[in-house]
Amino acid sequence: SSYGSGRATVSAYQIFNDGWTRVGTSNVWRRPYSGAYSGAGPVVGNVIDLSRTMESPAGDVLGWQNLEEEGDKVGVFRNNPAVLPFGKYAYDWAREVMYVNVGANPNDRSLGISCVGRFVNTPLGASPTNVAIHNLHIIGFARASINIQGDSTNWHIHDNDFYAIGGMYNVPSKWYHGSGIQMTHNANNIEINNNTLVQTFDSPITPQHFGGSSNGHMHDLHFHDNYIDRWALGAVEMADFGTNNRFSRVTIEDNTAINGGLGFSSIGDTPQGVTDGFQVRGGNSSVFSDLVIRRNKVNTAHANVVIGGSNFTNAILVEDNTLWGAD
After folding, report:
1. Rounded to whole angstroms, how far apart are CA atoms 124 and 164?
2. What is the pLDDT of residues 284-293, one digit of tens each?
3. How far is 123 from 128, CA to CA, in rounded Å?
4. Nearest to residue 186, comparing CAs of 124, 234, 130?
């Protein structure tokens, strides 16, 4: 209520996609910005090129260079901004100028650049309960906008707008990833409804058991009445890459998902051809029970519903969906 009647905007953008000028012949670029240092302090995190341009195949994963805390380097930096190391960005708070060393021209990148991985991330040992996230514009988080882990229960995510989520470059594995709303481990009693999710790098909504996990059980997950536009992989992806994990009592109902495969990931590591509407993918001894995919409207670049794996009990019910545009 402190934001008034409209939706508050939560944005991870700190570097814009135009207005940059080069410092000499270096790879450092500068841009004035409006505003100044706030009481909350500077944003600290990675900077990821969300537009996945050919000029930036490495993903531009940057760290924050705090000039004030490193021996008061502001004076030295002002004399020669080219000293900013590759993969760093820095603010000159007093002069309201931002610098970035990305090794490529940062202008004209269609989705701009993000500096924060996640908006909400639950530590494994915390497992918060009775959480509501609603009435927000959530923009540009590069890893996953919301990550629900551990034994988290009773979450309700509704009436939000998500835009340009995902696209983070994983340096050790050398691949890109990032989904919209992600659940794992034993997350349960999660309702996600009446959200708009536009331009998601991987999957807009995804409960997953990741590689190396075992004996997890996600249950009572309800995804309904969401509007999804442009994504890769699955508009809703339910996947197990571990061992002896379970999903049960999951409903995917009354969602609209359009333009699958036409998002910004389609120009990178995830081509349009692998995009699906809804994915259910089993791993080693996965158990799926009481899954319902019903009354959804979907068009994608490859297949609208993909079900793979074994150990399906109380069969997956797929009915009354409107599906068009698949191969």
Report:
1. 26
2. 678 888 999 9
3. 9
4. 124
Judge contact between 296 and 255, C-beta under 8 A.
Answer: yes
Residues 64-101 have pLDDT tens digits of 444 444 445 667 777 788 877 766 666 676 677 777 77
- Determine contact, residues 175/155, Cβ cutoff 8 Å: no
Matching residue, tokens 């050790």: 172
Question: What are the backbone dihedrals phi and psi of residue 81, each rounded to the nearest 5 degrees, phi first?
Answer: -60, -20
Please state, in angstroms and rounded to a whole number, the distance separating the CA atoms of residues 98 and 81.
Answer: 10
Instruction: Output the furthest CA–CA distance in the chain (Å, rounded).
Output: 69
Phi-psi region of 7 (alpha: psi -120 to 50; beta: other; left: phi over 0): beta
| Sheet strand arrangement including 276-281 | 118-121, 144-148, 179-183, 205-209, 234-240, 276-281, 303-308
Closest among 225, 180, 228 to 207, alpha carbons compared = 180
Residue 224 CA: distances (Å) to CA of 3, 154, 196, 256, 304: 27, 16, 11, 9, 17
pLDDT in the model for residue 60: 34
Please report which helix (H) or strand (E) contains residue 190, including its range: strand 188-193
Q: What is the mean pLDDT of residues 52-73?
A: 40
Residue 277 phi/psi, 5-degree rounding, is: -75, -70
Q: What is the DSSP annotation of 188-231?
A: EEEEEES-EEEEESS-SEEEEEPTT-BS-EEEEEEEES-EEES-
- For the whole prediction, is pTM greater than 0.70? yes
